[in-house]
Amino acid sequence: MFRSIVAGMLIVALLAPPLLATPVEIVQIVIAGGFGAKAAYTVSDQTLRWTDGVAGFLLDTAGNAYEFDQVAVAAACTGMTDQSAGGQARASFSSDNWSLSMIDSVTGMSATLAGTLYPGAKWVEEETAANSDVLAGKGFVSVTTAAFNGLTAQWGDDNNKAGLQSTMPLSYGFNLAEFLTQDFGSENVTIFLFADETLIPEPLTMLLLGVGAVGVMRRRRAH
Predict the structure, then answer these.
(1) How far is CA 17 from CA 5, 10, 11, 87, in A?
(2) Residue 4 lies in a domain
(3) Which of the pair, 80 or 220, is modelled with greater confidence?
(4) Domain span at residue 154?
(5) I want to staple 48 with a disulfide (CB 3.0 to 4.6 A). Which of 77, 114, 146, 219 is the partner?
(6) Could you tell me the sign of the dihedral formed by the alpha carbons of 85, 129, 198, 49, in that order?
(7) Cβ atoms of 191 and 73 closer than 8 Å
(8) What's the total number of domains in the chain?
């Protein structure tokens, strides 16, 4: 009788569906400055583009970080309106298609997020101060794709409105005064994507967060 009960319990256990791990909520993505992300603005078509990338990481609600050592960043901001004044460059863009793709070459874990500007929103690029040669970008976006492989996760946005932000110290095109007269670019772009669109750090805070992210990644690589 006992053997029959045990055998029955084993059969039930084998036939029962496996317990699914609870997905972690990803609430922030960082592509840190100094890890290959680039930006370039061309006057001829008035388009700002993001390209390349080397490393980045995801953060979940518990503060856990998931690092990726292969990153591909892409964006095209169009529909530019120059709003520069007083020697301080500023412009808004009415269209922004962007994507962030990341792979961890060791574990095979990957993440891809992509989207567009939130309906009615603008992407704004503005010098942090007149003749500072540092541009801060920000805008509300809709995440249309959020795919995770090798990680049980979900994007933690509850209203399809996220905050996308960037800082770019210019590598060329110095003494920028407006968006209508010269090409410019940066090879040291820091990019943040926040599931909570109300998180809007100041440009200086963005730079400090980017420096901190670089330090975290370098320490992990050293180990």
Answers:
(1) 20, 13, 12, 65
(2) no
(3) 80
(4) 24-222
(5) 77
(6) positive
(7) yes
(8) 1
